[in-house]
User: Fold these one by one.
Assistant:
Number 1:
Amino acid sequence: MSMTAKPEAQSFDVRPLSPLMAAEVVGLDLRRPLDTATRDAVYDAFLEYQVLVFREQTLGKEEQIAFTEQFGTLEEHMARNRGAEIALLHVVSNLGPDGKPAGKIGSTGWHSDKSFRPLPSLATFLHAVTMPPNGGDTCFANMYAAYEALPAAEKAALEGVRVVHSWEHSRLHKDGYKVPEEDRIAAPPMSHPLARTHPETGRKSLFLGGHASHLDGMSFDEGRAKVIALEEFATAERFTYRHKWRKGDMLMWDNRCLVHRADQNFDAALFPRVLHRTCLRGTAPA
């Protein structure tokens, strides 16, 4: 859905949240369409900080879709949105069929959204709708910083190495979920560069996360062990930022150089945690 109001310039401030990554954007009303200069300034900040936090937002589902579409092409979630009221927006929730907290949240392992696709996600937008009074944080690990911290010899050894990303593997590994045949056909395993070059910044990063099964061209066990070791290194605390949600926060992050996870550091059987997610389609990793 496109916004119909005439775009007008909006002023805003960008305030870094950590020395490594992430900045808050203060002063924008995301319900209003962005003029070209404002949109470009927001995107430049996104490339610089990798995680943007827009404060004090109150967007409905269609408004979030409209805001997201200003930065690229939206894509549907893999399976859960079939038959959903709005297929381009995924409701992230710990609520059960009865509408009450069910005791657990998903996506607690490190991952990059839709990395199993030929064109993995460019960016994810996540809007806090209902959050626990404390906790329910979202954590990010900077794959630029992790790659740059590797010894020179190891960087050289990673050149040309590819990693298999598999939605079926990640679902089985996570919770034993058996992927339907139609989804296996729609999302077969994909081989991507392990040391990925960002298409806009030119910086290299590790392309890992929960969908990364094993290194291509090796036995599964050997290739899997190397993926696990690299992910353990890359998600060390020195490479991470923890986002503590505030009411009305909208997050925008770069899946091409980050992995993320939700933290169940709250009573998920007592407090609801509901967020709205939209994703932008990216380009083939190189």
Number 2:
Amino acid sequence: MASGGQQQVSVVVVTLDALPWLERCLESVRGYPTIVVDHGSTDGTVELVRTRFPQATLLERENRGLAAGWNAGLAASDSRYALVLNADAWVLGDAVEHLVAFAGEHPRAAYVGPRLLSLDGSLQRSVRGFPTLWRLATEYLFLRKLAPRSRALNAFYAAGFAHDTPCEAEFLMGACMLVRREAVDEVGPLDESFFLFSEETDWCYRFRQAGWQVLFFPGAEVVHVGGASHAGRLFREQVRGHLRFLAKHRGAAEAERARLLLRAALVLRGGVFPGTRGATYRDAARWLGSARAAELLR
């Protein structure tokens, strides 16, 4: 690790019952100033951080959502860049240095994301397009599977982008993101009304609206387990995130149209898929049918 990168970048990790992945996460960034924000873990996380990573700053806070935790970690650091890293993710090799160097070559980059890999080494498609009614329809009605490389049917996943070259993105999945302090100071912290999903989507939208860039850089790689803390139990929050993003940036009427669309799609999914997966879809469909979008977002 180059000492210049260490002086320029700090690491922020928010965790809630994410053992054993957290140890691997923190080991991968050992040597960088690191802030761990714990949201009430009961699995031994606090003890692990204190004994195995005493150099890390540990903040114990009430769980007010991922955005609130990230904001607390960012407020506790003062480096030029912050690497915001999921507790179930770890960097490979000199990925942090490569991200910092790439950001340095692109002075209008507010947010740089690496290539994400699953445990088995397969690609996680992190380059995404902002939610719209049509894009949500292509995703939740599986229309994208008809033509995964089509912008018309798969803009939500960047038309099957190969993730093998740098590119400018609308937004990047937030499992690992290098953010520039100057850009954060300009556009403000994450919106804490997003509890778990879409907070990075909103942040990227705001960065781009202010004239900053969101860049994907495959020269750095990070392994991401995915769902380690919530194990997929918060699918409803993912749906709520879509509604909140649309309500904030497209208006209440658009969020209400999205509610009706998503409810219909999840009723269909709930009828097609058996077991736990189908039950998850049916639960979200019932929630979407319980009130209008404006009430669901209160």
Number 3:
Amino acid sequence: MLIKIFGVFLLVILVLGLIFTTQNIYANPFFLNGYFTENGIEWCQENLPLYEILGDKFFEHHKHSLESRVCASLYQDFYWIYDGPDRVEKLIERSKHYSQLEILESHEESTTGIIDTTPAGNKDQTLLQGITENGDMIVQIISSSPRINESLEINLSFFDKNSRLISNVNYGIKITQLDQQILENSDIYSENGLTTLLTRPLNSEDPVSIFIIINGIGISENQEELIGPKGEIIMFTVVPEFGEMSIILLGIIITTAVCLSSKSKITLFREV
């Protein structure tokens, strides 16, 4: 009897230890509960000069830690150069997104055995954002560039107007290139507001159109019980990177346009 009691007691201790370890696997003064603390953002700021000097060796210097990889993604984020009074809060929220990308990538690497040591949010990618009509939902995509014979990787995120991830999002997606369908799924559910999608290999490097159809928010299979925006379509266009010759040709075209008309006005748009 005493042996059984001792066995149960030991089992309880082991379970509690496992729970404690799991909850604190990334707990430190810089990182807690899946995202950076304010100290973590300060750590990124202090390490920016080192990152600019070392480049990819920055990650080796920090033993490819999660913190260093998230910092590298934040350096490329729109809110890193944002100068509003809530900059730190927004960067903390963005760190949650990049941390999730790292975790998702680690899960994929564990199944494929292919390890990619570059930050998940700092690859050859385009960051685009769209917003619903009432402004309550921000849809963000981080997409790789269209390349012939390569799949397009799309990291999709849903935020509220306070830049917090929205849970239980129901949506559909349609991706086309040169009027040809690349991917279509009308019934996707995102529990945590994050989804990674991979298309079939592309046939060209032409721009890709991505349509996101919002079906509502909630866990019910009955769409009538879902809340939030419904039926809204948000469109994105992902264009290939400019090669060296393309940049030269673009410069010639712009210069010619300026010379032909003194009234011409050239507006440069920056990606979000």
